[in-house]
Amino acid sequence: MSHTAHIPSHRKPRRSASKLAVRAGVAGGVLSTLAMAGTASASPSAEPVAETTLEMPVLNLDLGADVSTAVTVAAENTRLAAVEGELTAQEESARTGAAAEAKKAKEEAQKKADAEKADAEKAEKTAKEEAARKAEAERSSRSSSERTTLKSAAAPQGSGTVSAPATGSAAAIVNFARAQVGKAYVMGGTGPSSFDCSGLVQAAYRQAGISLPRMSQAQSSAGTSVSLSALQPGDILYWGSRGSAYHVAIYVGGGKFVGAQNPSTGIVERNLSYDKPTGAVRVL
After folding, report:
1. Is residue 230 in some structural domain?
2. Tell me, what's the pLDDT at 172?
3. What predicted TM-score, i.e. pTM, was given to this entire model?
4. What is the pLDDT of residues 82-109, one digit of tens each?
5. Are residues 173 and 272 in the same domain?
6. 239 pLDDT exceeds 60?
7. What domain range is 252 assigned to?
């Protein structure tokens, strides 16, 4: 519908071609009648002519106005059609632009959503990896703790746990051994300034009035064999097989021993874990 369809027109309606033709015919007839009347009055007549009055039909001929009106209406219609066409083009352009903007916005929203999804997946993967690392660390720590607990519960060799300090002969042996810490290790030494491993054990037991063989092999066979989980201060520790040990030392309690280790370290006090013994014997 035209944008001006609702506007009433105040211009004269356009006359049809048939009406114009009828009017033209009537006018022509009237003019012919007038011409004939003029001719008759001009010729002489024997008889007087009566004077006749003719009434002229009133003609409302406004052909110029009708043409002007038609041209104006046509021009107005053309202008309105042009305006309507321009509006239609603008609407179409607006629709096209809106569609392009909507498409662009949709593409940007999709890119943003894809980026956010990728970031979320990456964060989730990182969180899972971190959780897996923590879980693995906890498992390792728990396993280590469980191993330590089981080791303590089973009192494995070298634990050296004691329930009471050394007393009596055991105290004499332990005190003497500790008093030699820092002295030199000399092969075949029996004191008082230097010792080898079996010379130190023999000298310590002498403080308790007990005579031991000189060599480590024989010392590892003395007394009664005891478990490393039930050691008491004064017990003799040995490395190697019982009866053929290559090294001996004295357990002093608290999971420690005193021994003449080698020329580089001399006589030292160490934890059992420093050099785990093979077995132990109890002479007291």
Report:
1. yes
2. 95
3. 0.45
4. 778 878 887 787 788 778 888 888 888 8
5. yes
6. yes
7. 168-282
Return the pLDDT at 267.
Answer: 97
On whether residue 163 sits in a domain, the answer given is no
The three-state (H, E, C) secondary structure of 217-243, written as one string: HHHCCCCEEECHHHCCCCCEEEECCCC
Instruction: Give 169 or 63, the one with higher predicted confidence.
Output: 169
Sequence-separated (6 or more) residues with CB below 8 Å from residue 270: 256, 257, 259, 261
